[in-house]
Design goal:
Number of domains of chain A: 1
CATH superfamily of chain B: RNA polymerase II/Efflux pump adaptor protein, barrel-sandwich hybrid domain
Strand content of chain A: 15-25%
Oligomer: heterodimer
Helix content of chain A: 25-40%
Number of strands of chain B: 12
Number of helices of chain B: 5
Distance between the termini of chain B: 10 Å
Largest sheet of chain A: 5 strands, parallel
Helix content of chain B: 10-25%
Order of helices and strands of chain A: HEHEHEHEHE
Structural class of chain B: alpha+beta
Radius of gyration of chain A: 14 Å
Largest sheet of chain B: 7 strands, antiparallel
Shape of chain A: globular
Strand order of the largest sheet of chain B: 7-10-11-5-4-3-12
Radius of gyration of chain B: 14 Å
CATH topology of chain B: OB fold (Dihydrolipoamide Acetyltransferase, E2P)
CATH class of chain B: Mainly Beta
Structural class of chain A: alpha/beta
Order of helices and strands of chain B: EEEEEHEEEEEHHEHEH
Strand order of the largest sheet of chain A: 4-3-2-1-5
Number of domains of chain B: 1
Number of strands of chain A: 5
CATH class of chain A: Alpha Beta
Strand content of chain B: 25-35%
Chain lengths: 127, 156
């Protein structure tokens, strides 16, 4: 069972953003957990999920007051564990953002890509 | 046990460290090595809720996970500091995983491995004053101060 898990591909779709901090944490946590279990993981940010990728925003969102753990901490944890972070091109437009507004380490993909990804990953987790 | 305190973090001088991954290695008399998380690692993670080790018999390359560890605010792999086969896992973690927090260098070990290239890979780890110096630099750079939950091992 354990060996069967390694190398599986998990796509996490993050639609929650800085306006709903308690809903942002778990998807990123699960993504890091899957990466730690040696799965290939991508987080796809779309809809409201896009706004946490704007430079300077994620560090303002402390998940538990006084914990020192912010949304930025979680995003950095993703990158440290080689979780791919991708954002929807169309959602960037929705939030009046461009590539220059994004934090480092985030790639941009078009809407057709998400369909390909969903079909090619072993499992999609939608939040 | 010779050790140093750096910002309340304990560094045991006769262990061998992968400073980057915050793991330690102890060489055992039977040719195996014991591997665990450092005091710094357990402090950064906070009170640990779950730990899942790879199984006995699994062969790991250096840098690959030998376990995954979760706390309320952190989740991540424990990366193997050496290449080898896992020959024992710490069953005590199943009963009380916070032993990793309380006793990172003794009772809270993660796995034992039979190394396949010990001579070369051990030379890549840091021990003694070299390890202390490297951790001092890292701890100061990262601004880490270690914390210890009730019942933690005490060092004079």
């Amino acid at each position: 069972m354990e060996d069967e898990l390694e190398g599986k591909k998990i796509l996490v779709i993050q639609t929650h953003g800085v306006d709903t901090p308690t809903r942002t944490y778990s998807p990123l946590y699960y993504a890091v957990a899957a990466a730690a279990m040696e799965m290939e993981v991508m987080v796809w940010f779309t809809m409201n999920g896009t706004n946490q990728l704007r430079k300077g925003e994620a560090e303002k969102v402390e998940l538990v007051p006084g914990s020192g753990t912010t949304l930025k901490t979680m995003l950095e944890m993703c990158l440290d564990n080689e979780v791919e972070l991708k954002v929807c091109q169309q959602s960037l437009t929705l939030w009046d953002m461009t590539e220059d507004d994004l934090i480092e380490g985030v790639g941009i993909l078009g809407a057709t890509s998400i369909i390909d990804l969903a079909l090619n990953y072993d499992h999609v987790m939608y939040f | 046990m010779a050790h140093e305190f750096i910002n309340k973090c304990v560094v045991i001088k006769d262990l061998h460290y992968s400073v980057k991954d915050n793991t330690w290695v102890r060489v055992n008399e039977d040719g195996t090595v014991t591997i665990g998380m450092t005091d710094i690692a357990q402090s950064l993670a906070g009170p640990i809720l779950h730990a899942k080790s790879k199984k006995i018999g699994v062969v790991r390359k250096k840098g690959r996970p030998i376990a995954t560890v979760e706390s309320g605010k952190w989740v991540g792999p424990v990366k193997s500091p050496i290449t080898g086969e896992i020959v024992a896992v710490n069953e005590a973690l199943l009963e009380d995983v916070k032993v990793i927090n309380r006793s990172p260098y003794q009772d809270g070990w993660i796995v034992k491995m039979k190394p396949s290239d010990m001579e070369v890979e051990m030379a890549e780890l840091l021990t003694g004053d070299d390890a202390v110096d490297a951790y001092r630099a890292k701890i100061e750079e990262d601004g880490v101060t270690c914390t210890h939950i009730e019942g933690s091992d005490e060092y004079e």
